[in-house]
Structures are given as structure tokens and as C-alpha cells.
Amino acid sequence: MAAVILKGTIVSAPALGQLEITEHGFLVAEDGVIRGVFPVLPEQYAGAPLEDFGDALILQSFADLHLHAPQYPMLGTGMDLPLLDWLNAYAFPTEARFANPDYAREIYRHLARELVENGTTRVCMFSSLHTDATLILMEELEKAGITGYVGKVNMDRNSAPGVLEETTEESMRETLRWLDACQDFRCVKPVLTPRFTPSCSNELMAFLGRLAAERALPVQSHLSENQAEMAWVRQLHPDCRQYWETYAKYGLWNSRTVMAHCVWSDERERTAMRDAGVTAVHCANSNQNICSGVAPVRVMLQEGVHVALGSDIAGGDQLHMFDVVAATVRASKARRILDGWETDFLTVPEGWFLGTSAGAAFFGEQPGFAPGNRLHALVLEDGTLPQPHPLTAAERLERSVYLRQPGAIQAVWSEGRKVFSAN
Amino acid sequence: MAAVILKGTIVSAPALGQLEITEHGFLVAEDGVIRGVFPVLPEQYAGAPLEDFGDALILQSFADLHLHAPQYPMLGTGMDLPLLDWLNAYAFPTEARFANPDYAREIYRHLARELVENGTTRVCMFSSLHTDATLILMEELEKAGITGYVGKVNMDRNSAPGVLEETTEESMRETLRWLDACQDFRCVKPVLTPRFTPSCSNELMAFLGRLAAERALPVQSHLSENQAEMAWVRQLHPDCRQYWETYAKYGLWNSRTVMAHCVWSDERERTAMRDAGVTAVHCANSNQNICSGVAPVRVMLQEGVHVALGSDIAGGDQLHMFDVVAATVRASKARRILDGWETDFLTVPEGWFLGTSAGAAFFGEQPGFAPGNRLHALVLEDGTLPQPHPLTAAERLERSVYLRQPGAIQAVWSEGRKVFSAN
């Protein structure tokens, strides 16, 4: 793979709340790895092929660290119930259809295309409990150029009998079969995925914890999303003072762990997250849609917890990460109101950092377009919109977050490769 | 104008929280007036031209009861400040550009087209203080087929000196000139528009109150949006116990009054609204974006206050009313959380009612597709989306609210006339 040189107004998020802006600059990568952002093209690249995007914005692409692929078909429906009822009425029956590989192929191809066309190139994703559909999902993501982690869901208790269920033995056996079958994927890797504590027997949790250690696998699950859920966890694990301990006691709590929601995580739970290096995935739309609550993101950040963003479709109704960033900023304002105006809301640059750099960090990347990072980027052409005055790059970024601009993404790179082009 | 007969799956909101659904039914209008919705076409219309939209949804079009047309160019920017600072930093300089009629023409044509293409056919809209630009706005709306009220803004104090200002005398004179000049519009009518109490001297308020009475004109303004604003109003009118009284004492408070926001209206103020028949316009996105608060919509409805919805661009970042309905439902869930789970959130059918029937009521219409109403409708084709199971009409409506579907609106009718067709 030769040099990739992109010219345009380059905006990246090198730190929470900061934007690094290079007007009409050059983003250079070689062999898929970023060499740097330059106001003037270094001499050694003179003559190398260059894509000039004129006044367009060149931005980091997004990392979506929590979403449920098999809930994609129900996007935008079923928002009138709280979490546990919603799972039974909507989510489980929808996921059950992925027993059919043909259906899975059709839906997952559609999903992969929509993700990449909208600038999401890194994911940490739940599949369903179905091994074959999970492998199909991984194939379709890999083909579309999306990178990251996908997990076959484990759920051997409190499931949906006759609709969506697996025994403990099946769950363990299928997990091993899945792990064996997905060794050849280049950019999409497995992540162990106990659905959430109420869905997994102690035996299964222990099995997954051993597997995580033996095979050095990451783990994703849900944490402290909803108060009824938390009460249920306390009943199921009376030995654990807090929800997070039900993961920790089985070896599912470390720096390669992603925990979605954490709406109700108190200071003690947040400290446990920070100390273990667990990444909390904030899912603003989902938390509001199914009335879970509003996560204390500002406080988490102040305390040093790693926070990234998730679309959490289909509890979340918006797959596109521009919208997710806007929802995050908006939710932080609701949280400010809830906190009696005592916490600051998240600014757009802060929300942007969480949706890009903070998510990429889980994949070992440095913030922004740092040299050494794999090239993950998108080009946004926003020149056709009316504007009150010549906008700064920061204002254009803000507008791209708030304003829906179908067709504005001109091109997307993932792992150094151009994976989408509008032309 | 002859009969208009539309065939499809007809969904309307005849009462708060109710949907009336007629699968593959007929919506019939004559001379622009709805005759009824029929499961079988009445014999007298046999042979009349009919538009068959197959499985598409036929819905009421939207009423947007609060938006600032001259803030359209700044849509999606400047969300990091509270109301009063935001006005000075963003809104006033943007509005000032409408001193230029050519600029106004270009922007307002764009706005009118975007409104109608997205199914908004009724508005109650702020212009700027500029008379000529206001007339241009009314022309462009009328041409596009949008109906409702537009107001030249009055603001003779605490404005933006050198940027956006008018003297008391200018404000009165220009208001009269504007009213004289807009008598020939057929569907777009004037509404008196004191910006908000801090922007209008007592003399100007008194003038507008007299004008409202003499010419039987409706009134629109802002009420109890933000706590700093309310404190300022108390300083300016120490004789008034509450904000609403500053309008009431000048004759600007009656059943033809629209008040945007009402975030902080307490029981006494809400009672005054209900008793006078004032319409409260809830602007969910705006209130959250500029951190004003979350209006107690459920409580207002329970108390019998008329509530409709506004996009409130550009404090609100979403012009499309599908999004505004989704934002309304979502905000009601934040409000539920703020209320310690003691108020119910708004369901999608409730949000839908507020965005359609409740807004149309301000223009004298009955809820839903009631016989006698003018035909205001849109056709939505959502058949290309993946779905988990065959969706009911109610589920399709819910999905249309949450899911962005560019290009899904096939046609729009306003005042009996087809004003948009995708083909």
C-alpha cells in the first residue's frame, strides 16, 4: 500500500474539548499508517498521488462502541416500554429471526453499508446468540471495511423460551465453535459478550472469564442501565455489593472490558471502572428513549473514567454518529438541569472527542490524527448549505454534528483503505 | 377546485394519544375542504380522479407554531451559550443581514421549499424587524403553499445597537406600513410580534395591544423560557407578579395569543394560560440546546392548557417536524426523570397529535382529518426500509417519527392544493 495524501480542512480531536485545525492542510499516511498532518506538504511526498478535497472537511471517522446488530430491523420502533419489558416485547423476538442465515446476510449487508457510508469505521458490536449469523455479520463488516469487535451473545437464563434461548452447554459449545471459525478475519475480531448478568448463569460467567484470560479476549456487556435491572442483579448475586462485582468476580472486568450505559454507576462503581481501566460506553439516545436515565458523563470524565459513545441501536434510534454526538451534547444539558445546574454540559468539541478519539483509544490508538495511528477518516462536503457568515472550521464541525446532511460524506477511509466514495 | 381523492393507509390524530387508522382507505376533499375518510369510496365519487398511493401512509401535515425565519442560516451553530448571551452573540447579528432584500429573498425561498418538502404546511413564524424582508418572507411562503401567520418583529429596547435596532417610533410606523402592505396575501396573514418583554418599551407594548384589539390581530411572543430572562422581566415590570402579566396588562393575552416555551410557567401562570385560551408552544430541542430547561408538557396538558409544537429554529436545530415530534417525546422522558418518575412521558401518538392537530387548532381546525377541515396532508412512502415483521400502521408512524427517511415524502397538500410532489 503506497502513500495516501488527503488535502482539505483537517479537523481532529487531540484531547477532550480541543480541536486541532489545519486549513487546506495535508493528511499523509503510508502503508495505512498516519505520518502526520502538515500545513505544507513535506518534500518527500512531492509527486505522490494526492486527493484534493478543496474546502471540504477531513475528519476522524467514528467509533461506535455499543450497538446491537440484530436490532437494526426494528430501528425507530418500540420506544414505549422500559428496558426489561422492551427486551421481551421487542428486542428478543427481533433477534430470534437471525436463526435464518439468509435473513442475517441481507440485514447485515445493509447495516454494514449504512455504517460505512455514514463514517463509522470502528465498532464494538453485539450480535445475537446465533453463531452462524454472527460469522455472517463479521464477514459483512469485514467486506465493507469496518473494523473492531463483534460478539456472539451468551444468554443461558431468563431468556425468551421458545423464542430466543440457549442452554449453558450450548452457549459454551457454540462460543468455542464461533471462536474457532472467526480466526481468519483480518479486521473484525471476537469479543466475549455475556448479554448482561441476569442473562448468564454463574457457570457460564465463570466459563467466559476463563476464556477471556486463556485467549486474551476482550469483553463487552451492560452495566447499571436501569434501576429495575439493578435490583434484579442484586437478587441474583446477593454476595455482590454492586453490579460491577458480578463481572469482576468472574474475571470479566479489566482494561479490555467495555460496559455499556453506566447510567446509575455511583462513585464507588465509577472508581472501580477507573481503577480497572474499564471503558464506559455512553448511549444517550437509548437511555432517554427507554427512560433509563441520564448518565453522569461529566462527572465520569472528571474522575478519570474512560468514556466512549455508542449508538446502541435499537434502544437508540440513531445509527449515524453525527446524530449520536449531538444527542450526547443534548443529554449532557438535560443532565446539567437534573444536577441543578451544577455540572457543565459537554461542548461539541468534547462530544466529538468522545465519538472519535475516545472510542479509537479502545483499539489502541492515540487521540486525533496522531502519527502511528491507522488512517480512519472521512471527508465532509458542506459547501451547499446557507450560512450567515463565513464559518470557521469549528463552526462547520458544530453544524455537521447538528445538521443532517444526507450525501455530504464524500469518502471514508478505514485501516488506510478507501472504503467508501460518493462518486 | 374539484374533488381530491387520496387512497392509502390513512392515519390521523383525532384526540390526544389516539390514532384513527383506515388501511387502504380514501381521503376525500372537495373545493379544498375535507369531506371525510372512508374505508370504501362513497358512490358519489366513483369516476372522480383518484391518486392511489398503494401501501403508503397518508398523514396530516404539520403545524410549526414557533420558528424564527431569519435564524435559518445559522441552523446547527452556536449552541454553547444560554439564551440572553446567545441572542447577542448569534441571533441578532444573523437577523441583521435581513436588511438586505436580496439576501432575504434567497434565504426565505430556500426555507419555504424545505418546509413544504418536509410536510410543514402551517406556521406561526417570527420574521426580523425588517418590514421589507418580512413581506418577502410572506410572499415566498405563500408561493410555496405554506399557510399561517408571520410577524414583523417589534424590538425597540435592549436590542443590538448598531446591529439590529429600531426606535419606538420606527417600530410603530413600520408595523403599520407592514400591515398595510400585506393585505393581499391569501394564506399567509400577519401576527403581531413583540419579540419578548425585555425587547419592547411599555409604549410599544401598549401600541401593539391597541392594534391587536382594533384590527383583531393574533399575537405571538416568548414566555418564561429561561430563569435569567424571567428575573430581567421582573426588574422591568416590578408591578407584575409574573411574566405573563406583562403581556396581559397591554391586551396581548387572549385566545389568539401564542406563547413560545413556557418552560418555567408555574401553576398560576399555566392557569392564566388556560383561562385565557393562550396556546403554549413547546420547543423541546431549543430548550435543551440552549439549556433553558424542560417544559412540564404533561402537566400542562392535564391542566387543560393548549399545547402545540415549534421547531424554534435556530435555538432548535431541527426544522423537520418528524424530528421535532421525536424530540418532544424524548424531552418528555427527560422531564419524567426530572420529576422523579412521577409524570408520564408523552407517547408517540401524543407527540404526533401535538405536532399536527393541536397546532392546526390555532387556525380553527378540528382535530384529525375531520370533515370541514381544509385538506392539509402528506404522503409518506416507507416501504424500502428493512422491518422485523409486518408493521402495523401505528408502528410505521412511530418509525416515521424516529427514523430519518430522506425522500420518503411523496406529496404534500396545503389548503386543498398539492404543493409538493416528489416525482
Architecture overview:
- Two copies of one chain form a homodimer.
- With 423 residues, chain A is an alpha/beta fold.
- Chain A has two domains: 4-61 and 366-421, Urease, subunit C, domain 1; 62-355, Metal-dependent hydrolases (TIM Barrel, Alpha-Beta Barrel).
- Helix content of chain A is 36%, strand content 24%.
- The first copy, chain A, has 14 helices and 17 strands.
- Chain A has a seven-stranded mixed sheet with strand order 3-2-1-4-15-16-17.
- In chain A, strand 6, helix 3 (131-144) and strand 7 (147-151) form a beta-alpha-beta unit.
- In chain A, helix 3 runs parallel beside helix 4.
- The longest helix of chain A has 18 residues, at 321-338.
- Chain A is globular and about 60 Å long.
- The mean pLDDT of chain A is 96.
- At the A-B interface, helix 2, helix 9, helix 11 and helix 14 of A face helix 2, helix 9, helix 11 and helix 14 of B.
Identify the CATH homologous superfamily of the largest domain in chain A: Metal-dependent hydrolases
How many β-strands of chain A, per DSSP? 17
Label the CATH architecture of the largest domain in chain A.
Alpha-Beta Barrel
**What does the average pLDDT of chain A come to?**
96
Assign an overall shape of chain A: globular
User: What is the percent of helical residues of chain A?
Assistant: 25-40%
What's the Cα radius of gyration of chain A? 21 Å
CATH class of the largest domain in chain A: Alpha Beta
User: Structurally, how many domains make up the residues of chain A?
Assistant: 2
| CATH-assigned fold name of the largest domain in chain A | TIM Barrel
> Strand arrangement, largest sheet of chain A?
3-2-1-4-15-16-17
The oligomeric state is: homodimer
Low-confidence segments of chain A, ≥5 residues, pLDDT <50?
none
The portion of residues forming beta strands of chain A comes to: 15-25%
Distance between the termini of chain A: 22 Å
Instruction: Specify the biggest β-sheet of chain A.
Output: 7 strands, mixed
Largest interface, C-beta within 8 A: A-B, 48 and 48 residues
Structure annotation, total helices of chain A? 14
**Structural class label of chain A:** alpha/beta
